[in-house]
Amino acid sequence: MNPPEQLRNLLLRVRDSIPTEDFCGVGVVVSADLERLPIASLCTEANFPAQQDLAEQIAECSLYSRPCHDGFQILSEQWQLVQRNQYFAPFPAAECRELIGSVNVGSRHMAARFGSLIDGVMCTGLLSKREGIVVFQGGLPVD
């Protein structure tokens, strides 16, 4: 299974782990090179969830009822949660922005899409009420 398929399957399991009333959206970045990521912690004092399945860990970091529920969850190329609740702010070169064009989407969507262009990023993904599951690789949505 390739990384986008793995991420789509993971996000399906995350969706099943979050009660509807506690759902506020999920962003995930899978990266082989964490040093290249434009990230900053949104919740510096948050502990990593207890030893759980990866989908449950991500769900735990994304529950609206928790003080730390926003931002992107960062996974290593070994598919381990290595950073939680990160402000993720990629901004690609102008030629990359032109390729993507103008779309009417939210900031998490654009961060995931632009972030999938970063060297070392294997793929990015979102789980939202509006769009469901969306996975990006190389700046493009993957079916």
Explain this structure.
The chain is of the alpha+beta class and about 140 residues long. About 25% of the residues lie in helices and about 25% in strands. It has helices at about 5-15, 55-60, 95-100, 105-115; strands spanning about 25-30, 40, 70-75, 80-90, 120-130, 130-135, 140. It is globular.
Strand percentage, roughly?
25-35%
Radius of gyration: 14 Å
Q: What spatial form do the alpha-carbon principal axes imply? A: globular
Number of domains: 1
As a percent range, the share of helical residues equals 25-40%
Number of helices: 4
Distance between the amino and carboxyl termini: 14 Å
The strand order across the widest sheet is: 2-4-3-1-5-6-7
Please give the largest β-sheet: 7 strands, mixed
- Looking at the structure, the CATH topology is YojJ-like (1
Order of helices and strands: HEEHEEHHEEE
CATH superfamily: DNA integrity scanning protein, DisA, N-terminal domain
Count the E strands: 7
**Mean pLDDT across residues:** 86
The CATH class label is Alpha Beta
Provide the low-confidence segments as ranges.
none
Q: Report the CATH architecture.
A: 3-Layer(aba) Sandwich
Helix and strand content put the structural class at alpha+beta
